[in-house]
Structures are given as structure tokens and as C-alpha cells.
Amino acid sequence: MSATAKEPRWERRKQDRPQELLAAALQLFVERGFAATRLEDVAARAGVSKGTLYLYFDGKESLFKSVVRANMLPLLDEAEARVDRHEGSSAELLCELIRNWWEAASHTGLKGISKLMMAESGNFPELARFYHAEIIARSDATVVRVLERGMARGEFRRIDAEAMKKVIVAPVVMLMLWDQSLAPCAIAPIDTDAYLKSLMDLCVHGLKA
């Protein structure tokens, strides 16, 4: 095979390295936590040298932020776009967001990241501030938009949307934490489908005008 034919495969491999490093870092951060994760272990799991990792990331904090952004910002983008294009009722929209958030969490590192932030944010306040500014604030704002939409359309009763957003989000966060902690031990398993249906039923009927 000619050098020309080999070149695209090399280029693809090089371009794939950041994603491979992010995938390896996500696994290790979730398994070990932020403090116990070493960059050399991330590099080894991705099959590269530690020096190669530094070509893409300045250090562990930079790597962690990139992991969070890569896994969570697309979900936030999709949720905001869903609100923008939704033409049905606000109750339907709220249920869609809750259901889609959980489905996305089940197929990404979202659940593990949420557990990690809960466990270690007190020891790493800079990471906590970053996570709040780029993830939590946007997530909360999306829920507030739905609540305000429902009130403006006369579908929801008048409420304090800023206070209610946390009440709606908290059960989903709790389910993610449970899934990452007690669920693997098979202690009092939760039927996630029934749980989410109950949450959506409570939200819809509690908010109804």
C-alpha cells in the first residue's frame, strides 16, 4: 500500500485522539473520582503517552472541563432547541424534557458526572463554579422557560418559576445518583419508568391552571 493511501488513516487516528482521551477520562473520573484520577492513567487507557495528552489538554482540570462540555453541552443544546420548536402544550413539553433528559443520561456519562460533582465539588470549588455556570444555570433556565411559557399561555397556574425549577429537577438528579450508588447493590431497586411517570404526573397536575 502506498504512503498516500496510508495517510488518511493516520490523519483520522490523530483526529480521533481528543475524543479517545475524553472517553478514557470520563470512565476514570466516574470510577475513581476527580482527585484519584491520574493523567498518566487516562493516557494509558486511551493508548497514548502522557506527553500526547498534554498536546490537547493543559492539565487535569482542563481535561475534566472538556469531558463535561463534550458530554453535557449537546444535551443542553438539544433541550433548548426542543423548547424553541415545540408547538404543543407546555405540559407535554415539560414531560418531553424530563423523559429525554433521563434517556440521554442513560446513554452518556451524565449520571456519573452528576454523582462526581455531588461528591467532590466541596473539595474543588473552582470545578463547582464551572459546573454551575455552564451546566446547572443553563439547565435551570430551560425549565424556567417552560414554566413561564405555560403560565403565559394560561396552561399553568401562577407560580414562582425560579423556586419551582429546583423542585422539578431534584427528583431527576436523585434518580441519577441512586442509579450510580445503591442501584448496583440491588438495594430496593427503583422502577425508573414508573418513577418518571409519577414525577411527570405530579408536575402536570400540580402545575395545571
What this model shows, in words?
78% of the residues lie in helices and 0% in strands. It is built from nine helices and no strands. It has helices spanning 3-32, 39-46, 50-56, 60-85, 90-106, 110-120, 125-152, 161-180, 192-207. Helix 7 crosses helix 8 (161-180). The chain is elongated. The N and C termini lie far apart (70 Å). The model is unreliable at 1-12 (pLDDT under 50).
Secondary structure elements and pairings:
Layout (H helix, E strand, L loop, with lengths): L2 H30 L6 H8 L3 H7 L3 H26 L4 H17 L3 H11 L4 H28 L8 H20 L11 H16 L2
Helix pairs in contact: 1-2, 1-4, 1-6, 4-5, 4-7, 5-7, 5-9, 6-8, 7-8, 8-9
Structural class: mainly alpha
How helix-rich are the residues, as a percent range? Answer: over 70%
Question: Overall mean pLDDT score?
Answer: 89
Overall spatial form: elongated
Tally of helical runs = 9
Order of helices and strands: HHHHHHHHH
Task: Please summarize the sheet with the most strands.
Answer: none
Q: What radius of gyration results from the CA coordinates? A: 20 Å
Low-pLDDT regions: 1-12
| Strand percent estimate | under 5%
Number of E-type strands: 0
